[in-house]
Amino acid sequence: MRGWSAWVSVAVGSGFLLLAAASASADAIQQTKGDWEDKFRQLEVDLPTPNTYRTASGAPGHQYWQQRADYRIDVKLDAAGKRLTASESVRYTNNSPDTLSYLWVQLDQNIYKDDSIARMTETVQTGGARRPATGGGDTGDRLTYNGLAREQIFKDIEFGVEIRAVTDEAGHPLPYRVVDTMMRIDLPQPLSPGKATTFRIDWAYNIVDEERVGGRSGYEHFKDTDTDLFFLAQWFPRMAAYTDYAGWQHKAFLGRGEFTLEFGDYDVSITVPADHIVAATGELQNPSDVLTPEQRRRLEQARTATSPVFIVTPDEAKENEKATETGTRTWVFRAKNVRDFAWSSSNKFIWDAMGFRQDSPQQPQVLAMSFYPNEAEPLWSKYSTQAVVHTMEVYSKFSFPYPYPTAQSVNTWDRGGMEYPMITFNGSRPVKDKKTGKVTYSSQAKYGLIGVVIHEIGHIYFPMTVNSDERQWSWMDEGLNTFLQNVAHLEWEENFGGQDRNPNLPDTITAYMVSENQVPVMTQSDSILQFGPNAYTKPATALTILRETVLGRDLFDHAFREYATRWKFKRPTPADFFRTMEDASGVDLDWFWRGWFYTTDHVDIAIDGVREYTISTRNPEVEKPLARTEQRQERVEPLMQIHNREDGLKTRVERIPDLKDFYNENDQHTVTNKDRNDYADLIKGLEDWERAALERAQKDGDFIYFADFTNKGGLVMPLPLKLTFADGSSEFVMIPVEIWRYNPKRVTKMLIRPKRLVSIELDPRHEIADADRSDNSFPRRIEASRLELFKDRESTRNLMSDMLVELKSERTGDTKGEADEGKAGEGKAGEGKTVPLGPAPKDAPRDGKPAPAAAPAPSK
Predict the structure, then answer these.
(1) Element of type H or E holding 287
(2) What Enzyme Commission number(s) apply to this enzyme (predicted)?
(3) Looking at the domain assignment, is residue 644 inside a domain?
(4) In the list 456, 533, 587, 621, which could disulfide-bond 417, CB 3.0-4.6 Å?
(5) Of 841, 845, 810, nearest to 824 (Cα)?
(6) Are residues 313 and 446 in the same domain?
(7) Residue 624 shares a structural domain with residue 763
(8) pLDDT in tens, 68-109
(9) Residue 94: exposed, middle, or buried by beta-carbon count in 10 A (0-12, 13-18, 19+)?
(10) Element (H or E) spanning 730, and its range?
């Protein structure tokens, strides 16, 4: 596609700049007279102009470039003090055509500083998550115990990155400036294209209690065993991305818009307490230093195992928790060509693994692994690693072979998940009955675990490998990934988890699409009002419809694989995705991208009417009697005449038959000689092909239908129709979306069939996300449901009776006397009780990244 700005440059060269400038607008050509609207207006007028970096076909151009950052990191975990101390050496290579006088580095932990933009702009606290207030007074003023405890933590502990030194390769100090969650390093000499520079940063920070503070990393404390589980992400100063489309991507980290990063190699040494087990991005380089001989034997066995093998058993994990061993061990990991690095460490970890074979000369064998505490058993050992392998099997069919040597699932919290190269942090655990001590897990926990592992391992494909800009376009990783996650659900088992875990996506998104409180999908991440439906479910639904209804699986799957392959280890933009899908499928999809991604229109199409016809023979001997019969069937007899006949009243003509004449025996449908002559002249005047067509129609006896459709929601879509005939048979017809190209509001479709229709149903398989199905059938259907009965009067509160109830102890459940009554309202931080400052808020995810509607495994 060709961009609008390219057309302007042509116009300048042709000498009519004023005309071009006067005609150009952000939304290109618009109709100003009448109510015509072009839903098929080409999207290239809004997309960036193709260039040598990004082509009009959606592929990387011959001069495409991206920067590179290689890291050597030494980090020490102070488990008792909940603190990290580290230093890193970064080699930054400037592959751009630009000379850089400074570099930007991300300091994501600064989001927890008291004066950060994120902290200063927090509004209502709900369980540690940040949620915009809905108003003042009784509607917006609220505070949970968890929110109160969170604020107390910030009062007691100073968070954020403590920069201790920034130096060049020779150890000379480099000037730097911290700007919220970013740091600018000023170079002593500008960095020319094709050149590299190395610098060093020493830093430290206090690790947050993730359960109370929220976020994507931190630690979890287990009260029963007085142990901790650490999961560290966004933990080191990382190079901000420098791109051809935005320059430096240094928008402040506010918590929702995630990360835009550069690829590179990592060499990371992690020093932890001696009883800890470490999971990390990359491959372990020194197993002999940190694992027992038996554990190393099991690890080698797991590489070719077809089911999970314990490297650290549940019993060994329990012993590690009790260990009194002092000292430390250093785990060394290396990772090649990754955009990030994360790790987790604990003396609680069970560790299992199995091999995954794939058709890839670069990476034929992958080690799938899971790390989890005994509190996650027996759920995790049964499903986590199997779900890791399943994800790679499914996603590779739609993109490319898994590109890394390991794929890991780590249990770091009780719900939600987060993704990094080769490692993911996932939730979902069983529950223990407080009275019996018996451990059980619900269906929701089982399928929640499988789903979240699929979702987060899937993110290793998108965006950890297909490196989209999460800070700007969340849908490019969350939406694409949620789409593939649902594919993987149904390849795990039919009816995965039941209706609640894997519903029909087009049906789940309609309520959001008709709501007022929404923004287009193409909205910057931190400005999205309803993040789950907008970033996850709506784009996932759109892609599902594109695959199953608009393009079909063959065209869609080919185009999607082409996109993934083109942009593997590169940084695509939305325009690259849109253009590739059109280029590889050969189908104009501009109407689809514009409607689903750039507008807040919804799908609501109605069948307004259907009319039936047959072809007239024009022969008066045939048509006149038919017309008489039809007139009698359609004529409404006057009620007075009916009552006259019922009363036995005789008309005058009945009483005096002599009053009858020619017109009592003949009507306008009587065939005359003139009619016969006119018919003969008509047949004689027809061309041979016209006469043949008429005779063929008389022979076939087809029924002709004109069906009227109205687009009430604004979003044009194909028309999937189910035609049901009088003989009980049915036919499915898909009318292409282009039927709306001349009039996007109202269209009439002609259907010719050899059998009489009795009904037409629009979208019978619920595939186009039609928001109002009450007008999708003709004739209209009576909707059946069930009505619950209620008592005429509801019970009322008896205050006197309630006062006689003895108070139960919160600890034992025993009743207590009135002396303890004043403590009844007390609660502990984190119990989920609400300080009585206003109405209790709804539950919210712990880091402000809400669960997507109809997406069973939300990413954190």
Answers:
(1) helix 287-290
(2) 3.4.11.-
(3) no
(4) 456
(5) 810
(6) yes
(7) no
(8) 999 999 999 999 999 999 999 999 999 999 999 999 999 999
(9) buried
(10) strand 730-735
Give the tens place of pLDDT for each residue, 362-376: 999 999 999 999 999
Does 381 share its domain with 423? yes
270-278: average pLDDT: 97
CB 549 within 8 A of CB 718: yes
Residue 168 CA to its chain's centroid (Å): 42
Confidence of residue 216 (pLDDT cuts 50, 70, 90): very high
Token readout for 91 is 């080699």
Backbone φ and ψ for 468, nearest 5 degrees, come out as -75, 165
Residue-number span of the structural domain to which 137 is assigned: 84-215+234-253
Under 8 Å between Cβ of 441 and 431 = yes
H or E element at residue 553:
helix 553-566
Q: Are residues 248 and 351 in the same domain?
A: no
User: Does residue 143 fall inside a structural domain?
Assistant: yes
In a domain? residue 53: no
> Is 137's pLDDT higher than 50?
no
| Residue 384 sits in the same domain as residue 445 | yes
pTM, rounded to two decimals: 0.87
Long-range Cβ pairs for the range 669-674 (8 Å, 24+):
669/624, 669/625, 669/627, 669/628, 669/631, 670/624, 671/620, 671/621, 671/624, 672/620
278 and 321 in a single domain? The answer is yes
As a whole number, mean pLDDT of residues 486-509 equals 88
- Percent helix, strand and coil across the chain, each to the nearest 5: 30, 25, 45
Which of 345, 388, 349 minimizes the C-alpha distance to 233? 345
User: 10 Å Cβ neighbour count for 810?
Assistant: 14
Residue 77 CA to residue 350 CA, distance in Å, equals 20
DSSP string, 33-59: SSS---TT--GGGTSPPP-SSB-TTSS
Rg (CA), the chain: 35
β-sheet bridge partners, residue 831: none
Q: How many whole angstroms separate alpha carbon 184 and alpha carbon 207?
A: 24
Three-state DSSP class for residue 508: helix
Number of neighbouring beta carbons within 10 Å of residue 51: 15
Domain count, the chain: 4
Give the containing element (helix H, strand E) for 747: strand 746-753
* Amino acid identity for residue 117 in this structure: I
Mean pLDDT is lowest, of 343-347, 392-396, 828-832, for 828-832
3-state secondary structure 119-171: HHCCCEEECCEEECCCCCHHHCCCEEHHHHHHHHHHHHCCCCCEEEEEEECCC
How do residues 580-639 score in pLDDT, each as one tens digit?
A: 999 999 999 999 999 999 999 999 999 999 999 999 989 999 989 999 998 888 899 999
In a domain, 154, yes or no: yes
Q: Tell me the C-alpha distance between 162 and 203, whole Å.
A: 5
In angstroms, the Cα distances linking 129 to 211, 256, 347, 416, 854 are: 10, 11, 28, 13, 21
* Contact residues for 141 (Cβ-Cβ < 8 A; gap 6+): 837, 838
Dist. CA 668–CA 367, nearest whole Å: 88
Contact 177, 183 (CB under 8 A): yes
Assess whether 291 and 412 both reside in one domain: yes
Q: Do residue 683 and residue 713 come from a single domain?
A: no
Residue 481 near residue 395 (C-beta atoms within 8 A): no
> Please, are residues 214 and 65 in contact by the beta-carbon 8 Å criterion?
no
Distance CA 454, CA 857 (A): 8
Q: Taking the mean position of all CA atoms in its chain, how far away is CA 489?
A: 14
Chosen domain end from 753, 778, 803: 778
The pLDDT > 70 percentage for the chain reads: 87
CATH number of the domain where residue 272 is located: 3.30.2010.30
**Considering 738, 761, 778, which residue would you say is the last residue of a domain?**
778
